Amino acid sequence: MQPDLLPCHRAASVLQNLRLSSPLVHCMTNDVVQNFTANVLLALGAAPAMVIEPEEAAQFSPLADSLLINVGTLTADRSRAMLVAIHAANASSTPWVFDPVAVGGLAFRTQFARDILALCPAAVRGNASEILALAGETAGGRGVDSTADALSALPAAQHLAQLTGAIVAVTGEIDYVTDGNNAWAIAGGGALMTRVVGTGCALSAVVAACCSLPGSRLDNVASACRFMKLAGEQAIAVSRGPGSFSPAFLDALYLMNGEALA
Amino acid sequence: MQPDLLPCHRAASVLQNLRLSSPLVHCMTNDVVQNFTANVLLALGAAPAMVIEPEEAAQFSPLADSLLINVGTLTADRSRAMLVAIHAANASSTPWVFDPVAVGGLAFRTQFARDILALCPAAVRGNASEILALAGETAGGRGVDSTADALSALPAAQHLAQLTGAIVAVTGEIDYVTDGNNAWAIAGGGALMTRVVGTGCALSAVVAACCSLPGSRLDNVASACRFMKLAGEQAIAVSRGPGSFSPAFLDALYLMNGEALA
Amino acid sequence: MQPDLLPCHRAASVLQNLRLSSPLVHCMTNDVVQNFTANVLLALGAAPAMVIEPEEAAQFSPLADSLLINVGTLTADRSRAMLVAIHAANASSTPWVFDPVAVGGLAFRTQFARDILALCPAAVRGNASEILALAGETAGGRGVDSTADALSALPAAQHLAQLTGAIVAVTGEIDYVTDGNNAWAIAGGGALMTRVVGTGCALSAVVAACCSLPGSRLDNVASACRFMKLAGEQAIAVSRGPGSFSPAFLDALYLMNGEALA
Which residues of the sequence carry a binding annotation for substrate (chains A, B, C) (predicted)? Predict the structure, then answer.
């Protein structure tokens, strides 16, 4: 069963909330995408802060509006800092979002992912292979690429949402976002987005920003996906390749408004 | 009291010196802005080198023309490497510059900042919240954002300059640079620069490059601010948003000359 | 003696192979260039993955099509992870490529470079200073800049190739690639490429991608150099400076085909 498309007016209303509150997102993310992630948040109207020393991370998470945990370049040291930050976030009711980059294929991060999944993430955002792996099903991941399509992983996403209480976003050519019962589909974007590193990781940061907003968390997470799909589509329309895509993508996020979303 | 604007011919003369000597800047900076910082230095005609292993950092600082210390993503390990590099720089009279990112709000880096402030930085560059915190006054920082304006922090900057012997730059809508007695104001730039991560951090790297040049250090640091303000202004004039800003900004630094500064 | 230019049809055939197999490159590279390196590989049609925890690196190298080792921001921790990854790569016959950034000038990385040179790299890519240093000859390096020209380092490159069995690429205004007996020259590019951080480091990642392809490894490595020289040349032709260069460069890699190479 194909879920309905997220209605435009819901995304427009989430964007308005995001611009009003400019949430501060504590990003504990991988080394490859830190700059792009920060620029995506800034372009959209949120505020990024990367704080990684365990003591500081524990102090900072409660001050932030949300926390992002991305295991792309996980190390043992970084995993300890992340744990401390998650516990501090939970103690202060700061929502935290999990991006399980390449989980399933690599043993160390897969174990870490299973451990932190029990710590009540507000949302999980991954590709089909990652969501299938988190839900305990096998999939053919190859690094950060997914060899499964997103719709085929929707049942696993629903199962994972029911199990953890998180909103689960499984992203691909079409994105699916579910709370375990209901689901939205989000269309847009294009293949060129897979030729630019960090579009998925940055989406997870936008999901974190949106998890701090009032209203339905399902709608908030789905709207984050829609912002990125729409900006991707608009940027592809004016790009010659992945180089010209990136500036156009950031501009589109910056210029996005309710009309563009309609 | 509003200080005078830095005269154009002083900035032009500093730019000429920078292009002639192409200073090699040893950058120990945060993970988010390393690439942008290196590209800003290269665009302007300086040479960046990021060397972080303690043994190598100690060997490299005396070979470089200046050293940048930026605590944006400080860790305990990195703080030890920075200390070693600062001592080696001081032993060889290599000027070092301090960027106290988010100092005041986070305990670990605030203690580290107080410790190294005693080690004779050539210059300190921060926003109003950071400079107020360094000078022992309270301020409302939120991550890397400043909630105080730069002029209100000028007395704290003057106090800090007198205390440490450093040139202190407090940056914002207008930048102020002081040696404790005299001060310059630097106008330009625009709000879009706050929507691109690393413009402040990269400015600190340019300040480090300029601290290696002959002549008045006050003029040198103020000129670094002016280069960035002017390039920002020129880039904003041809940008649709923060994505198109970045390439235009680097081009403007590369193409900058005495005429543009006049 | 000036080697012959690499014939166009050889580079075209290597590009075709690269696009067909889309090699997965395990990149253990420096903190400054991770994003650009990933985007260069993606633009050209390869797939990057940055995995750095020792246990994961050892698990991942055998799954990847090749491994890149770049010591630009080497730390003691990172050097241990690299060693484990190299041994795992060798055990599974995954080719690995070495980029000896700033070797010669800094003691810690120079010792590490000498150690891993004995572990059978498939290829080594460096500037003249770095290749001279690796071959045991002195050179005047200044950070990542080379003060020697590439042709003067060709004898050292040939010696190094004979000693290690690696293809050695010494790059500069003209690149030279040798297996110890034969050599190709590769022209193109331009001085603006030295004003953008990571063009050399990203080339080494492309060399790693090409080392996984069938056919002559000498031709494969020389073709990697040619792809970057050609994209550089095309990007310079449409750029105002280093800012507009980067997007144009990635677009040129993405749009490259046999015709463009002819």
Answer: 50, 198
